[in-house]
Amino acid sequence: MIELMIVVVILAVVAAIAIPSLIASRRAGYESTAKQKLAAVGQQQTAFKTLLGKRRYGSISELQAATAGGSPLLTANDTTVTGWTFSDEGTASATAFGAKVIPATGNPATYSFYISEDQTLRPMDQSSLYTKRSVTKQKPRKPNPCPP
User: Fold this and answer.
1) Positive or negative: CA dihedral 133, 42, 107, 29
2) pLDDT score at 103
């Protein structure tokens, strides 16, 4: 009976160590997917304007309604990621568009991402206005003091 209790305690310790790492890895995966899908929204904006001959950028809903080669430029799945919410930022025009992905309720992220007509994916502080100038400054990475 004591051996069984020792095994249970060891499993509990391993679980206490492993579960937070698994959750963080999963959250990082969702964030990466959200950034990739937001970049794809930016690319489809260019297709909407040039390939379809619209001569202007469109909203996310317009991109979902527009088709090229029989397929929509964006599907609902292209703007869906667990823990993140996609939306337009501002009004699309002939010269500009803005799209963002922000953390959904329950997502502990304190930042979001924004893309505009220059196709640059920008990390944004939650309190910032979504513009090209309100980019969150990235902290320089410190070199590893113990190289492998």
Assistant:
1) negative
2) 92
Q: How far apart are the first and last CA of the chain?
A: 44
pLDDT tens digits, residue range 86-144?
Answer: 999 989 999 999 999 999 988 888 889 999 999 999 998 876 666 555 554 444 444 44
Taking the C-alpha atoms of residue 22 and residue 20, their distance in angstroms, rounded to an integer, is 5
Plot region of 11 (φ>0 → left; ψ -120 to 50 → alpha; else → beta): alpha
Cβ(87)–Cβ(124) under 8 Å? Answer: no
Do you know the residue count of the chain?
148
Measuring CA to CA, how many Å separate 119 from each of 36, 108, 116? 12, 26, 6
